[in-house]
Specification:
Blueprint: E1 2-8, E2 17-23, E3 30-39, H1 42-48, E4 65-72, E5 84-87, E6 90-92, H2 98-101, E7 113-114, E8 134-138, E9 143-144, H3 151-154, H4 160-170, E10 178-182, H5 186-197, E11 201-206, H6 212-218, E12 222-225, E13 239-244, H7 253-257, E14 259-267, H8 279-283, E15 288-291, H9 297-310, E16 316-319, H10 324-332, E17 339-343
Parallel strand pairs: 10-11, 10-13, 11-12, 13-14, 14-15, 16-17
Antiparallel strand pairs: 1-2, 3-4, 3-8, 3-17, 4-5, 5-9, 6-7
Bound molecules: NADP nicotinamide-adenine-dinucleotide phosphate (NAP) and zinc ion (2 copies).
The site of one zinc ion (ZN) has 8 residues, from α2.
């Protein structure tokens, strides 16, 4: 067993605090990764505070992991000691269902094994995530990191990057299309960078006027403050795709009306309360609402390679582990610019 340092929360009401636990020993197909950076995703906050239900404690959150391979099992083929490696939101799946066979492990019929807050096969403890010094993962669920990218900015690609890349690809976003991104946070700012890299004309729909200059710097052509009176009505029939990354429920009607005929509202934001679905804005223009969950291993590698080719990383604020609780509060008040990343040297 491998003694591991971490930050954990003991209950939905607790602050995160130092914690020690043991990782499994390295098996034939495993790599042991010394974690260098881990991003703070809003999903970490939802789960740490049990907002989705079913949280297991103590919980070590973190699923935007990059680090250095420090040991490989006897059968490992694609990683060597010293390589940089990434781990995203899941560390295993059944490998045999239709979804797994198609490389859509995130939709595994028996449920993916999440990087944290899942039962760990063969053990009594749950999986523990990336707010920790090291992690043991099967190489099939481990990603290669492009060598040209700065590592702290790569960590958020493992969730925020793939969660926005996958639905933009699924919707076949390309040049000449109008794409809106709702919410300029961790996911949203990656959505802007990626949609712009696909050639789309990007509009940011934000509740924070102060983010306008950043939105344009990140690649948006237009910025709309959704709190301004009449702002949403002016957007009627404008967009092919709206990518919603907002972590709270909202009135879907003006956003559906902002879609062209056959347009798609993609929901990746995952509030604990349901949205009310209005029928008429959907019916009258054959509009669609689409859900999307992160991405499979093959597509996550494709996204990382795309980011390597286009020199895309997240805009990050690197913090020591002692500032995790403060970072949670700043994320909740939409103050993050645009992803907090923990420097694991500070554990
Ligand atoms: P984040 O960094 O906190 O960004 C969310 C942004 O949404 C905020 O910066 C803010 O942007 C806007 N916002 C927040 N509260 C709002 C409210 N009450 N009303 C209107 N706008 C609000 O969060 P994130 O890490 O990007 O995650 C966003 C959501 O996606 C979370 O619910 C998370 O759990 C979910 N998620 C889903 C997946 C998936 O696979 N589907 C993966 C990862 C995360 P403005 O200031 O610009 O308005
Ligand atoms: Zn996430
Ligand atoms: Zn499966």
């Amino acid at each position: 067993m491998l003694p591991t340092k971490a930050y954990a929360t003991k209950s939905a009401e607790s602050q995160l605090a130092p914690f020690q636990f043991e990782r499994r020993d390295v098996q034939a197909n495993d790599v042991l990764i010394e974690i260098l950076y881990c991003g703070i995703c809003h999903s970490d906050i939802h789960q740490a505070r049990n907002e989705w239900g079913g949280s297991v404690y103590p919980m070590v959150p973190g699923h935007e992991i990059v680090g250095r391979v420090i040991k490989v099992g006897a059968s490992v083929k694609n990683f060597n000691v010293g390589d940089m490696a990434g781990v995203g939101c899941f560390v295993d799946s059944c490998r045999t269902c239709d979804s797994c066979k198609k490389g859509l492990e995130q939709y595994c019929v028996s449920g993916m094994i999440q990087t944290y807050n899942s039962p760990e096969p063969g053990r009594k403890t749950p999986t523990y995530g990336g707010y920790s010094s090291q992690i043991v993962v099967d190489e099939k669920y481990t990603l290669q990191i492009p060598k040209n990218l700065e590592l702290s900015g790569v960590a958020p690609l493992l969730c925020a990057g793939i969660t926005t890349y996958s639905p933009l690809k699924h919707c076949e976003v390309k040049k000449s299309q109008a794409v809106a991104v709702m919410g300029l946070g961790g996911l949203g700012h990656m959505g802007v960078k990626l949609a712009a890299a696909f050639g789309a004309e990007v509009t940011v729909l934000s509740t924070s006027k102060s983010k306008e200059a950043d939105a344009k710097r990140l690649g948006a052509a237009n910025f709309v403050c959704t709190k301004d009176a009449g702002a949403l009505e002016k957007l009627a029939e404008k967009f092919d795709v709206i990518l919603n990354t907002v972590s709270a429920p909202f009135d879907l009607t003006p956003y559906l009306n902002a879609l062209k005929t056959d347009g798609t509202l993609v929901l990746v934001g995952a509030p604990s309360q349901p949205h009310a679905v209005p029928a008429f804005p959907l019916i009258m223009r054959r509009r669609k609402i689409l859900g999307s969950l992160i991405g499979g291993i093959k597509e996550t590698q494709e996204m990382l390679d795309f980011c390597g080719q286009h020199n895309i990383t997240a805009d990050v604020e690197v913090i020591p582990a002692t500032k995790i609780n403060e970072a949670y509060e700043r994320t909740l008040s939409a103050q993050v610019r645009y992803r907090f990343v923990i420097d694991m040297k500070t554990l």
